[in-house]
Amino acid sequence: MLNSARQGHASVLLTDHYEYTMAAASLADGTADRRCVFEVFARRLPSGRRYGVVAGIGRLLERLHGFCFEQDDVDYLRDAGVVDERTADWLADYRFTGDIDCYAEGDLYFPGSPILTVSGTFAECVLLETLILSILNHDSAIASAAARMVTAARGRPIIEMGSRRTHEESAVAAARAAYLAGFASTSNLAAGRAYGIPTSGTAAHAFTLLHADEPAAFASQVAMLGHETTLLVDTYDISQGIRNAIDAAGPGLRAIRIDSGDLYVMTQQSRDQLNSLGANDTAIVVSGDLDEYSIAALAAAPVDMYGAGTAVVTGSGAPTANLVYKLVEVEGRPVVKRSENKATVGGRKTAVRRHKPTGTVVEEVVASQGTPDPMPGDRALQTRVVEAGEPVADLPSLTDSRSLLREQLIAIPWEGLKLSPGDPTVPVIMR
Amino acid sequence: MLNSARQGHASVLLTDHYEYTMAAASLADGTADRRCVFEVFARRLPSGRRYGVVAGIGRLLERLHGFCFEQDDVDYLRDAGVVDERTADWLADYRFTGDIDCYAEGDLYFPGSPILTVSGTFAECVLLETLILSILNHDSAIASAAARMVTAARGRPIIEMGSRRTHEESAVAAARAAYLAGFASTSNLAAGRAYGIPTSGTAAHAFTLLHADEPAAFASQVAMLGHETTLLVDTYDISQGIRNAIDAAGPGLRAIRIDSGDLYVMTQQSRDQLNSLGANDTAIVVSGDLDEYSIAALAAAPVDMYGAGTAVVTGSGAPTANLVYKLVEVEGRPVVKRSENKATVGGRKTAVRRHKPTGTVVEEVVASQGTPDPMPGDRALQTRVVEAGEPVADLPSLTDSRSLLREQLIAIPWEGLKLSPGDPTVPVIMR
């Protein structure tokens, strides 16, 4: 298995040891079948963030569909002493038979938003904790950071090119989350194939260094890809690089890329130089450790496209969304942990977002064990996606999720789009 | 494929688009077969860090072994317009036939250390860039953070329990890297199975909340797992929780876990209370957003074991090692990119670490296109692991890598172990 071209571990083992121990103990003492409700929510947003973006729901539902046990999975758990015989037998027949309700991918969330609700028996629900949180914590962290970069870019496209800075499989999920948040394309081919995301690429410094000189490298690239390519002009000297680029491709060259130096100054100089060479339509792509702040700082520079890498795939300072999965209801009775600094509200929650007549969001209203009193302009935030273990709705496409996010970022109070540290822009009112 | 229990993408597509475009252009212009040397190194360590830990080599070599193209991979690349027919044919027969030399997993690195050297033809080497960097950047970031936590814990064991805070497959690699760095165990079962890492688990608040009351939950857990278990005592009131725990398990209870509150104060009170109940040997496990600093701050508290989650799997502020993969030699000729702020030294490097007679490391000496003049006490840092495309050495086990790291952290100047921000503790001298 380890030496096959495709790797990846069994979904059922992407799980913490204690979930199996708890399931085993509940099977032994008769509590395993109690009807439970677990909820995913954030106690707080990453420091200074004004909103979070829900992402990963589509990936999660695919993974959950494959959450069943092969014989060797059960054997491992029994032989390693994680579960007893009774539990091993139960696992062999395991299939999630409960319900899942959740916010749509691309919607916003705030502290306390009941992003995802899992209901079913204790034992079947408890096993899903780690997988659900891993996917939602990672993907939401990336999408939340990416959305800020998209806002900062003010309509200019951004290419996601951070695969090399994160775990090889995270890179694929990160490309998906960034695209969902409004990025234009990705460099990651697995993401292109798995999710239909446009892929794009330019050239690396290695390609120039491989050749006798820069003109030879550019000539080769243009011969292969035509003038609809992007030439990387900063391997030696940017000004000479631009002359070489236009010599090789003509003034119809699609784009140049600059990956180093003071991008504000270099792009001004490069724009002037390109125009003087008649290459007025040749675009300028910039990259090099860009985050939302450096993108915003280039708003007045003649940049046509950004490439973002490290910052987006690592969540720009917030690599996890810190979502939690908490038991809130047992057999219809609200439950809550009492320790002072992690107070949560018990009971199954129902959430709506409340709007002014203009369409601007006022607040999110969350009711425990009931529904918020309806008001004109309310939007229900949760949809049932799994019922009795089966998918009940076609999931929105990534394109739908992109549109939803774009609409929601227009609907929140404008302060929500500021990059500066601030409070969550929409209050969550617990009723 | 997407709905199978095991997921994971083809290794050959965990790659940036431009690597294929460059390979294609080099095949077209005749430069594809030029002998090249690429090196992986860090330009700098994460801010304030005094050393980095090499990790991921074992995972990388497994992945590289599976770096070959199924027909559907080639079809995707051709149909998506990433490569032309010539390149598609070449990919169908692709097999890496070059050499790889590298630092051992568990060894230290500093800015400029030539951690991994790939030599072969341009086209075969350029395709590996993203996969190599993804794996080494992720795993080294986690191991580097984890090693600082192990130092801070001063011999007390740490459980890795961060799976839920990171991508589901990263979680498995993170557990491996943390174990390599000296963690005692992981909660991640896939890591337990894939790498033989000891797994451990306690119980969650959900298990207590599921039951009518805490005594019922504890009685169930003890009935299932015996007194060799860890009871989570902070769901309601810690002091009452400890009484309930000893009532349920007797004074021979193995451990209690505290996950909230002021851990310094709570562990003192809990120790006194346990002793007064005759449970002098009952261990105290603490968890709750622990990082190297909060672990260090508990040095004088009666803690027996730490659980670390978010901080370790996200690299404690440095989620990527920022390693780069640079072309340094073409047909025996050193090459180097000239742009001022990313200066690198061309030519294939050979590295040794130089020691005082006492065994303390003095410096790392790196020679370009040659070997450092030998000195007594030198230790060569690179080993050939792949020759002509085939593995040539049994890789060290994770246990070997743990030992190596432990030895190296003793050998560096003692300032290197300080948690405070500082410079790299070993200078790298380029010869």
Automatic annotation (TrEMBL), chains A, B:
Keywords: Glycosyltransferase, Ligase, Phosphoprotein, Pyridine nucleotide biosynthesis, Transferase
TM annotation in the entry: none
E.C. code: 6.3.4.21
Modification comment: Transiently phosphorylated on a His residue during the reaction cycle. Phosphorylation strongly increases the affinity for substrates and increases the rate of nicotinate D-ribonucleotide production. Dephosphorylation regenerates the low-affinity form of the enzyme, leading to product release.
Segments forming domain Nicotinate/nicotinamide phosphoribosyltransferase: 159-342
Biological process according to GO: NAD+ biosynthetic process via the salvage pathway
Alphabetized GO MF terms: glycosyltransferase activity; nicotinate phosphoribosyltransferase activity
Catalysed transformations (reactions): 5-phospho-alpha-D-ribose 1-diphosphate + nicotinate + ATP + H2O = nicotinate beta-D-ribonucleotide + ADP + phosphate + diphosphate
Source taxon at top rank: Bacteria
NCBIfam families from the UniProt entry: NAPRTase_put, PRK09243.1-5, PRK12484.1
Function: Catalyzes the first step in the biosynthesis of NAD from nicotinic acid, the ATP-dependent synthesis of beta-nicotinate D-ribonucleotide from nicotinate and 5-phospho-D-ribose 1-phosphate.
Protein name: Nicotinate phosphoribosyltransferase
Organism: Stackebrandtia endophytica
